[in-house]
Design a protein that fits this description.
Radius of gyration: 14 Å
Shape: globular
Low-confidence stretches: none
Distance between the termini: 39 Å
Number of helices: 5
Strand content: 15-25%
Helix content: 25-40%
Mean pLDDT: 96
Length: 160
């Protein structure tokens, strides 16, 4: 059971994660590490979608989460994304969690855990750090096998 209610217009978090997976696959096709993200408004409207693009953009901060947050902020003309929920195929890193805190998102739903750099549950529960002035619920493991397989396939192909 999710601690985060599925927004109106979506049957479940799996449907939302499939949208993020489509972004991950787009990133893969561009030669980027296949991570995809979607930001939904409180009413369920997709505000922005993005895939990883640090290689394409020559920008170390161009993670899917950051790019989706930027797009959503432009859409609503506000850097605060009150009521918005981010769905992402891979557990966010510490940089992305920082951006999510500053954006004041209402929650994060992710697919695969990141045992190397995951900052919501795997390596750190960054959202629980006592000095942060915003907290949000986290729901992980949505289509985790599918999200993880996209990454495994990508890195296996690169090793060949």
């Amino acid at each position: 059971m999710s601690l985060i209610a599925v927004p109106p217009g979506w049957p479940d978090w799996e449907a939302v994660m499939r949208e993020a997976l489509a972004e991950a696959e787009r990133g893969r096709d561009l030669g980027e590490v296949p991570v995809g993200a979607v930001v939904l408004g409180a009413d369920g409207t997709p505000l922005a979608r993005a895939c990883n693009a640090p290689i394409t953009r020559n920008d170390p901060t161009a993670h899917a989460e950051i790019l989706a947050l930027r797009g959503a902020a432009e859409t609503v003309a506000n850097y605060r994304l009150d009521g918005a929920i981010l769905a992402v195929t891979l557990e966010p890193c510490l940089m992305c969690v920082g951006a999510l805190v500053h954006a004041r998102v209402a929650g994060v739903v992710f697919g695969a855990r990141d045992p190397k750099a995951g900052a919501l549950s795997s390596r750190l529960r960054a959202v629980d750090l006592p000095f942060l002035n915003h907290r949000f619920p986290v729901y992980g493991g949505v289509l985790a096998d599918e999200c993880g397989q996209v990454l495994k396939d990508f890195f296996a192909a690169r090793r060949k």
